[in-house]
Structure formats: C-alpha cells, structure tokens
Amino acid sequence: MNATRTKTLLDYVYGHEQATPDQVYLTQPTGGGQVIDYTWAQCMDQARRLAAHLLSLGLPPASHIAILSKNCAHCFMAELAIWMAGYATVEIFPTEEPETIQFVLEHSESKLLFVGKLDNWAHQASGVPAAMPRIAFPLAPPNAGAQWDALAAAQSPLPGQPARAGDDLAMLVYTSGSTGQPKGVMHCFANVTRAAEIMAETIACGPDDRYLSYLPLAHVVERSYIECCSMVAGCHVYFAESLNTFVEDIKRARPTLFLSVPRLWLKFQLGVFEKIPPKVLNTLLAIPLVGKVLGRKVLSGLGLEHVRLAGSGSAPTPPELIAWYRSLGLNLMEGYGMSEDFALSHISTTEHHAPGYVGIPFDGVEVRISDDHEVLIKSPGRMVGYYKRPELDAESFTADGFFRTGDQGERREDGLLKLTGRLKEVFKTAKGKYVAPAPIENLINAHPLVEQSMVTGVGQPAAYALVVLSEHLRGQLGDPAERMRVEQELVLMLKDVNAQLPSYERLQMLVVAHDPWSIENGCLTPTMKIKRRQIEAQASERMAGWYGEQRAVVWA
C-alpha cells in the first residue's frame, strides 16, 4: 500500500469542479427518451449536500455505506458523498438475491444503504435488515427509503475540499461469487487512484471521450475503467435506461470508448446475422471498398460507429469473434484483470495484440508464470486485503508479493499473455487424465450455434460439454426438421472440436441444455460468468442417463 501518495480521485473531481463547472459530466435517462444532464458543478452540489447529511447522522468514522442500484448518475454522486464524508463504499450487484444482499450488508458491517434503480426491489428488500437506514435515489422504487431530493434540499453543501489519506479505505469490492460466498476486496484511495491514472493514460481518454455505463458498477471493470477513469480524465458518462432501450441508449451516447463482456459481443453479432446471413456478410466484408462501407453501416446500426477503442473482458472471448468485429472496422481489444488488482493487469494495444491473447502488462505491472503455469501478478492496483479474511491474504500472495490469480497461462517473448485455464477448474476423468475446460469451451463458443458452454465430466469415462444454443435458434426447435438440422451441425462441430484436442480431452457428447443459463436461475453470476458448481449439481442426477444414450448429441 502506498501511503505517501496524496492526490486521490476526490482531488481530481475537485479540479474538474473548479476548472470546468459547466461541462456536462453525467447524462441520465429518465424514461420516454428524456434525459437529465448533470454538470460537474451540479454533481458536486448534490454530492456535497448528501455528504453533509451523512455527517449529520453521527456514524462512526470510516463507516462502510452500501449502494444497491442499477447504474445511474446518483451512484456516482453517492460514492463521492460517501468519500467526502470520510466513509467507504460497498456496491452490491443490482440482481443479487436477498440472501446475498443480507450477507454483504452484514459481512461489510454497512451502516446505511442507498437504494436506486432496481427491477426486483419487492423481492430483494427482505435481505435488508429492518433497522438499517435507507436513502432512495430519485429513480428508486416507491417506499425504498428517505428521498434523496428532500435530504439534499434540507442541507447546505459541505464546503471546502475534504481530503482522504492514501491509505484510507475507499471501497469494498465484493467478488461475484462464482465459487461460493463473495469475498470483500479492500481497496485504498492511493491504489485505486494510481490504477485509474495508469488506465486513463494508457487508453488516452479525456474530456472529449464518451462512455456508456451499463455493466454493473459493483464489478471492478466498470468501477475502474468507467467511473474512476472518468473522474481522473473528465470523460462524459451516459447511462443506459433499460435492456429494451439499449440500442437507443448507445446511439444517444455515441460512445468513443465502449466496454462489454463476451456474451454481449456475441449477442450483438447474432443480431446482425439475423439480418444478414453470415456467409453473405463475410463475403461482402472481404471486398475492400464494399467491406469498408458495409462494416461502417453495421457498426452504425449497433451505435458503435464512433468507438475508437472497444474492450472485452470478464471471461475469455473467442478469437474468431474478435477477428469478426475487427473486420467491421471496430478496434476490439481483449483485456485481463480482477477485483484484487482493481482490473489493472493486462490490456491489448494497437501495437501489441493477437487473437487468443489478453494483452501486455499495464505500466508498473509485473508478471511471472509459476512452475504449475499459474499467472502471478504484482500490480499498482493491488488490494489491501480481503475484509475479515486474513487467512486468505496469506494464501493469496507469494512471499515476494505476487498475487496468485488462479489462472493458468503462457507468455510470448513480447509480453502478450494467453490464458489457458483455471487451476481450480481442471478436473480428472476416470482415465486419470486431467482436462482443462476453458480452452475447449473457447472452441465450442466460437461456433455460431452456441451461446454458452461448460465442459465437465469429473470421474467419468470422458469429458462432455453442456451447451446453450443461440437465442435465435431456441425458438425454432419445435420444428422437427429444424431440430434435425441443428443436431447434424452439432455433430459436425463436435467432430471438429475433438480433432483439435488430445485423445484424453476429447468430448464424448454435447448435451443441449433445455433452458438458457441466467442470473435469475442461479447459473450465471451478476457478471455473466457460469456457475460451474450450480450447473454441475443440476446435471448430476441425469448425467448417467446421458452417458448411457451413447449419442454424440443429447437433448436434456
């Protein structure tokens, strides 16, 4: 931890407030195509008033205050208010179940909860202790808490420039819990500020850049690249209204920097394929002049024609998918990071990128590969530690301070990193051979028929893959002829995938999932990573029957 560094994110924000008070910082949709623009001066006026209110409550110094909301302008304002009042923030994923909300609030010892835009507050409210004070953002559901606007009107803005020390706790980032209870990752002001500075400098963002904020702010990528980078560089941040208005939200923002996750990049692609068959589109894109015009038209339809840098992260992105977007003219780059290093790990650049690689280390990041191929990272964005889990701190770092990521990988001489699997995901079949699922899943996910896949088969004669078919196919499977066609294509895909694998990793079958995996049914984390234990548990009772069918494709 760097306790000597004095400039923090708050200092950058104070600078924008003084130098460009009338510049729009946040644009919030309010429904029906209407928006509210908040300048730096207006954002800070609101944040200062709520900071004054928080101080009036007499909470203990350095208290933790939670935020449960979909992304909105008041999430940023609330975080600034919490920081100015001398407290630390705890963002909770807006899709969490009541049990997880209760766990995070209790584990973090949060003293107050801000409630914002939510789709299922009536269900989630039971996870909030009855005695916990609540403040409702303007877009919050009815009866969610004391009204933000009324509290702001009743307070004078907190004056001056309240400072935070570099080693003060800025936030607790709770991991999304793909393998159990989420862990609270502690980050101090010095390290999150330094990480945001390095990111902003690396991607050269500034006041002329526009972001669309829609990935959960509880996730470290959105928190670092969007919120904290915008505080450092003064970018204009737009927010999405809803899933139904997402394309309109993108077109309103005209983003110059755009981040997404592989599943959404795939959905965008499949949406294009519904309008133009892939073979026709790819043929036209290969014609130099026609391809350039067509690629621009496709990107314009997605609202991405102004994007100078697009990023994909949170999970492996099929190289073929990245190559397809680049054929459209989109500068799509893959990156790598985690909660524990505030996402400051690896990034692809125009000079250093390759399909299947997640980039080179950010400035100041040290990397090495252990004897068992684990990626070890020492980052300026390093966490302080896990909240109330000192035993995990000891397990998570080497003696010389490198974080054990749990990811396996290999590096090229030029520093490009390729991830080859997860140490904890590697499993052994009945033949005594180890299988790394991630590289096989990447091969499967590259096929346009497949939306998601999971390779498993612990203790079985051979591994197998559960697959979720692409959304546009699922509604057509009632037609027996269409189902037969899809099955035949899956058989060919299985042969193609197995041809690329050593004999001990070859899949016995593909099992087509009956229902798509979602956050709601517990099969995906809030950041849309698959929950392997949950899916394996659901499959366990039927697995013997699937193996017994002795078919290349089984319909679950």
UniProtKB/TrEMBL annotation:
GO terms for molecular function: ATP binding; long-chain fatty acid-CoA ligase activity. Pfam families: AMP-binding, AMP-binding_C_3. InterPro entries: AMP-bd_C_sf, AMP-binding_CS, AMP-dep_synth/lig_dom, ANL_N_sf. GO terms for cellular component: membrane. Keywords: ATP-binding, Nucleotide-binding. Residues 19-387 form the AMP-dependent synthetase/ligase domain. It catalyses: a long-chain fatty acid + ATP + CoA = a long-chain fatty acyl-CoA + AMP + diphosphate. This is AMP-binding protein. It comes from Rugamonas apoptosis.
